[in-house]
Fold this sequence. Notes:
Radius of gyration of chain A: 27 Å
Structural class of chain A: alpha+beta
Order of helices and strands of chain A: HHHEEHHHEEEEHHHEHHEEEH
Shape of chain A: elongated
Number of helices of chain A: 12
Helix content of chain A: 40-55%
Oligomer: homodimer
Largest sheet of chain A: 5 strands, antiparallel
Number of strands of chain A: 10
Largest interface: A-B, 31 and 31 residues
Amino acid sequence: MELDERKRKILQAIIRNYLETGEPVGSRTISKYTDLNLSSATIRNEMADLEELGYILQPHTSAGRIPSDKGYRLYVDTMLQEKEEQLSQATQEVKEMQQILLEKEDKMEAILKQMAKVLAVNTNYATLVSAPQVKGNKLKFIQLSRVDVRQLLTTIVVEGNVIKNTMIQVAEPLDDETLLKLNILLNTNLNGLPIEEINLAMIARLKHQAGIYNDIIAEVMDAVAAVIKEDEDIEIYTSGTNNIFKYPELSDHQRASELITTFEEKQLLTELVQDTLTEENSTGIQVYIGNETPVKTMKDCSVVTATYELEEGMKGTIGIIGPRRMDYDKVISTLKTLKSQLDTLYKKEDTQ
Amino acid sequence: MELDERKRKILQAIIRNYLETGEPVGSRTISKYTDLNLSSATIRNEMADLEELGYILQPHTSAGRIPSDKGYRLYVDTMLQEKEEQLSQATQEVKEMQQILLEKEDKMEAILKQMAKVLAVNTNYATLVSAPQVKGNKLKFIQLSRVDVRQLLTTIVVEGNVIKNTMIQVAEPLDDETLLKLNILLNTNLNGLPIEEINLAMIARLKHQAGIYNDIIAEVMDAVAAVIKEDEDIEIYTSGTNNIFKYPELSDHQRASELITTFEEKQLLTELVQDTLTEENSTGIQVYIGNETPVKTMKDCSVVTATYELEEGMKGTIGIIGPRRMDYDKVISTLKTLKSQLDTLYKKEDTQ
DNA sequence: TGTTAGCACTCCACAACATCGAGTGCTAAT
DNA sequence: ATTAGCACTCGATGTTGTGGAGTGCTAACA
């Protein structure tokens, strides 16, 4: 059996209708909904075929049909309609984002949180934003300052202006000259190095050069190591988790509790983010339908993600999590627009 | 009508039983549960009295009784049993906390998150931890560093070792000498000042002294202002929100959705934290029962909070949010122990 | 006078049952 | 190939009835 044009149209109609209502859709509905001018009986025959082909399924014998994962997949891959109006509608949220990014000060964290929130409010789905990873970035600046007689402050700036601080308690006071020497030593040796390359061998060499300042160097290196390590567990911000209650198919106790937990324990989401970052395709947009998602607790959800790249190597993820019957059109076009805005942001800034 | 000893005992028995089961408790149950050796009929009479006095109520005519807010209040105020075993049991979690605090490095944020989590896992309630506020604290260290030709890094350390950074873009490069001068100017003028006192008048004076470096001073002051402002909105960490699903009385759609939203939009919790911090009583522990809580969405919950003080003026809050029928005994003793641990932490550290 | 046994009554929870209607598959006619 | 018609299925919804837990009240008792 073939999936001819008419079957495709009917499938499309079924999915569209189901996305709107969330109810199984029957043959009579389709018979009127489409401009195919076919009777419900004909539709019924076609539907039986579509079911056999695996694109739709029946919750029970005398109910209408709902799309299967395979059906959604086909829809997402080949049937999305990029209407103009849709696009302009999508930019609604994107405009708000731009506003946020313009006022961006330097509080990356606050911006990302805000982004997640605006997206959630506008889409009525749960959202997720991962902070850009500094993977492969270079150390730009390192400094020791004396804050107190026995307290030193390590300040480390990585490319992309990620700033980290650590306090170090020293056993015996350092004089200004020593401090200056240490700073020069650190900067000449470490500046410009990708943070991943600052490893044990490097530390050993520095310790050697440091001579009597062994202990302090060791502590500073620990701080640097902490920075590197810290960036390994990705920061993820979520918003709109309560939106799941808007979709009955997700909000029974069992599922709701699992999902809420997943959103709270953000490390459960890293798998998703990682997957997105690695499996990047040409558009930078990925759609996970139902069981396709890497996170098992989301098997009844669909997830649409976009990978953005602020600067060379600074990649992050934006994700939207909702029910299978998600408004893919809107979500995808929103993410596409947002992604392109973010992608060009750095360049713009650079040339301004 | 008086609340005599027997009535108290019956009330206590009703509450205890209800805390365990969550079901309305009937006269027959109490008749056997207590060692009063009274028949169910007698209990019934007493229960009618207790209801008239407002300590208990009936969900419907032929159901048992459940405690009213007034009943819970009396229980919490006068009937808590601080068994020894209870206390030692409570310290279970506290020990984990101590562990966490010992490994504390300097990542306040991580510690607080972890604290919230451990508490949530152990108690089966939702938890909240607010970061200590720096209110009234003094500026300890301020420094400008050149990171790049046109980028300056402002590092500000406040007492209690809260560190803030801001990047400043400057129009034209500064030479080393100027930078040094600026640093001296900033430190001599600002060090030791309570951050609240760094206001417009101060800025004006500095601008005057700064002469041609007007612009940079202005920017630095903005950064300082940002630090102050930032500490106004309290940081709150929550955990175990999914625990609400363990209590049927909280987990219908309506309530669950509201609660989840409240926990996600943490600013909705600031009111609670503020209230706790201001209305501090002798024990430092506060119990809000049902409608007593400042947050309306929690009218079906009870909240127990503790105020801890790391250093002079650095106060924070720990809270446990659960159903009205919360295990007050356990929660309160856990929080008491934890609070005292935190309160003494700073002193210990200082003298070690 | 306080306590208790007994009893009629109330009301919810739960199960059994009936009903309705949307939707189907199939057949036969067009 | 399409469609009208029909018997059938099955969940959703509503009705009814029964059981049991619990009450309040009364009368008897210590």
